[in-house]
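Worked example

This section walks through a single chain of length 112. The input is the sequence exactly as stored; nothing has been trimmed or padded.
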Amino acid sequence: MSEYILCLGLFSIGLYCVLRKRNIIKIIIGLGIIEYAVNLFLILIAYRTHGRAPILDKAQDTLNIVDPLPQALVLTSIVIGLAVTALIVAIAIRIFEKYNTFDITKIRRLRG
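Given that input, the structure is written out below as tokens.
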């Protein structure tokens, strides 16, 4: 149960970074922390004590097998998260080239 609370704490830290920080780089880091918290939560859902790999064999019984679906979701989430992070970093670089700042409040003032 404490793992779920720590996962919620990690998600809360990331959400705080996204909502309260003014620096674009810190917001990107907050989004990464949120992504890691969600991935950790999905892995915690699939965890079983003394669980076995989800490989079926004719000689084995199907008791206490780990669910493979959350593992596949996390792998997909990692790939999508990497692509989204790369896109956001590219946009942040373009914003810095145009406005010479990472501060969101200054960028809003410069908008005409």
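What to look for: The two ends are 51 Å apart (CA to CA).
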